[in-house]
Amino acid sequence: MFSPQGPSLRELAVQALSSVERGYDLLAPKFDHTPFRTPDGILDATLGVLRPLGPFGAGLDVCCGTGAGMRVLGPLCAGRITGVDFSRGMLAQAAEAHPDAEWVQADVRALTFSGEFDLAVTFGALGHLLPAERPPIFAGVHRALRPGGLFAFPLGAPPPLASAQYWAMLGFDAAMRVRNAVWRPPFVMYYRTCTLGALRDDLAAAGFAVTTAPMASLGRRRDGTPRYRLVLARKDADGPG
């Protein structure tokens, strides 16, 4: 799973016993050499779906990590591109890799942007958010967008009940709940809390009109359904900024 440049088992154990913020500060220098970094294939598929919907002005990557989302925002946005994350370590890596972008250290549960962006994206961050935290985050993204602005993120299809992936995800979530019950600070990372129905409801409650688009380049499952969809949450063009 990891390249020789990736973290050791000891480093991963220390991260797992830290808070989310501290854990990612520690992991940041080696994060891009782990499978936790969003693969280029998903980034490129996102770009392919969004390109016909642009061009866009300013772009925002929510929970930007080391800046992988700039692979999407850079080609699409004619204006400034900004990444926001709470990990100082991750932002340092992002700034080194993408010096032309803006980087903001902030808690995404309390975003202060207002009507500044035309496109917002997020990659691989939703599992770090408890369901109760999504409404204020989505409300903050809605507020950060200009009227007509778009919030987009990829979402994988749920694995079949009989698949090894399903049981691996179930086991991981169970282990994480046990860990957080007996150890502080908590480390939030759950794979099974981000269903399309729940996300659609939370986005709609924040004021978005929600659709999805298949990410065709990532293939289809045996039943013919897409392996991934891009969630497209649009702010009302006629609403207040």
Automatic annotation (TrEMBL):
| Pfam families registered for this protein in UniProt | Methyltransf_25
Q: Which residue windows are transmembrane per the record?
A: none
Q: Residue ranges of the Methyltransferase domain? A: 60-149
> Which keywords appear in this protein's UniProt record, sorted alphabetically?
Methyltransferase, Transferase, Ubiquinone
Top-level taxon in the UniProt lineage? Bacteria
Q: Which GO terms describe its molecular function?
A: methyltransferase activity
Q: Kindly indicate whether the keyword Methyltransferase belongs to this entry.
A: yes
BP GO terms, sorted: methylation
Q: Which SUPFAM superfamilies match?
A: S-adenosyl-L-methionine-dependent methyltransferases
Record-given protein name: Class I SAM-dependent methyltransferase
Supply the source organism for this entry.
Actinomadura livida
